[in-house]
Amino acid sequence: MGWWGESGLDEEDRLDREEAKHVIKRTVRMLRPYRSGLLATLVVLILYTAAIEAGPLIVGYAIDHGITGHRSATVIEACGILYLVSALVMAITERAQIVMVNRVGESFLRSLRTRVFRHILSLSMRFFDREQTGRLVTRMTSDIDALEMLIQQGLLVFVTSGLLFVTVVILMLVLSPILFGLCAIVLPPVLISTRKFRRESNVAYLAVRDSISQTLSTLQESLAGVRVVQAFGRERHQYERFRRHNRAQLDANVNAVRISALYFPAIEFTTSVATAIVVGVGGVLVATHLTQIGIVTSFVLYLGLLINPIQQVSQLFNLIQQSGAALNKLYGLLDVAPEVTEPLGAVDLPERGAIEIRDVAFSYRPGELDNVLSGVNLTITPGERLALVGPTGAGKSTLAKLIARFYDPTSGVVRYGGTDLRNASISSLRRRIAVIPQEGFLFHGTIFENVRLGKLDATEDEVRRALRIIGAEARFDALPNGLQTEVRERGSRLSAGERQLVSLARAALANPDVLILDEATSNLDPGTESDVEGAMTALMKGRTVIVIAHRLSTAERSDKVAVVDAGRLVEAGTHNELLGVGGRYAELFASWLGNSGSHDARAVPTAGDG
Ligand code: ADP
Fold first, then answer.
1. How many Å apart are CA 519 and CA 500, to the nearest integer?
2. How many Å from the N-terminal Cα to the C-terminal Cα in the chain?
3. Do 402 and 468 have their domain in common?
4. Are residues 595 and 581 in the same domain?
């Protein structure tokens, strides 16, 4: 029946005039590299249209000059051959244009997809705080799919239809203005009913989509909650609900089909009426020698070519609007500028620099008065081991993120080796400072590949050395496939401790000057716990270390302790100094000692969180 996709238009799919203009302009600009391909496609498309339109002309000519009048076998034969040739050209150009449009369209989509992907990866943390992963995935899937569908099914039909419509009108006008004038009478009803059809069917298909999702969500909910449904004897209730939605789905579908079933026959009937007019009036014109039989024949044949494009474009309208909206959203995403950038002439950070945090305030939502951090001053000398302690939500991780420049401070400055991080080259920043999250994130691939992420051009020897430094080489070698063991998605084949070891080896390979560690809050499996501890100790050797400590035993072993509370740095000094002061740290330590049977088992108590 030729309905293009069962999707109606949501409100958000509609672009206003300005947006549409912008999308078209930008698309034209983005299509520039494909100019020659597009031009060639256009030439083929014109040939194709010409071949379609040649048919009726040839038939008319054969009738007027070969059958009526002088009866010439040569003319008929020549016309026959010409007709065959035009049919052949039509077949060849049809195939060629499909291939060409798809080639250009798919290359465009491919580059759009890579551009969007690369752009997303370049964006700063604040963007990811704001955007849901799901929505980003939608951009890359359903929005691109809408464009894919347009390229595969709609674009050619749309352009050909437009070209056909315009040229057929011109041909008809040239052949017989009188007959065209008569046919034109049927055009307004066709155009009006097409517009009406487009509106109504759009509403109808939205209703279909709605009712489908209602039925599905009832199904899903009933299945997910089947235990509750059965335990409370609510089967009948769920069944009734399902039945109601299912019924609504039927009604919506029937309604949508009824609208199409009215439109298409109506258009066909109108075409027949126009044909009857042309045949009737044409007959009179022929009888009065005002025109020739062949011309009337060509006319009748052209009539189909006139109405068809209107019908086809009407069916494509939604798809085109959806694609426009999809492009608009994708362009919007491409327009989001990364926040963490480097200026022209950014400097490379030196080796072994001191970290200075001066009057730093920070808010995740700039403009809000409520700062997550404020008035933070701290210096970390090269090679120093600093523990950040404090209750959950105090701002420890946020401070760590500022040192790694995942965000820029709202006010104040973070320096490394005397350079404001905002003036440092990002590549040197990432080389000098490495962040190790609580849980090691592994990518699809082997252990070897995952370690090598720390330094992409590392040799096998270097990877092995990194594993040796943290004392994990033998452990992974003992696996059946050794370092070539596939970790599967997110490293599901390895234990949590092993994943952490891979992540530590990665850092060892990257060999940064500064390590920012988030100590795991939960206990690892006993088999790997001590290995991970050993690996951390080895990795810390000779580096500046900032550890977000959840166990105060870690703070006890550090060179310096900084206590963060409610966004402020309330105390800083050695473990012993701070105990001597008898302030916030002494309080935390006392309560931690009281809570913990064995030193290392407990995290910092979080009582008193704000
Ligand atoms: P800690 O590491 O001490 O537990 P955080 O630095 O993670 O504390 O959090 C400090 C405050 O900032 C908390 O109130 C937390 O809710 C808020 N916060 C943390 N991350 C974000 C974020 N990405 N967006 C908005 N607020 C955040």
1. 11
2. 63
3. yes
4. yes
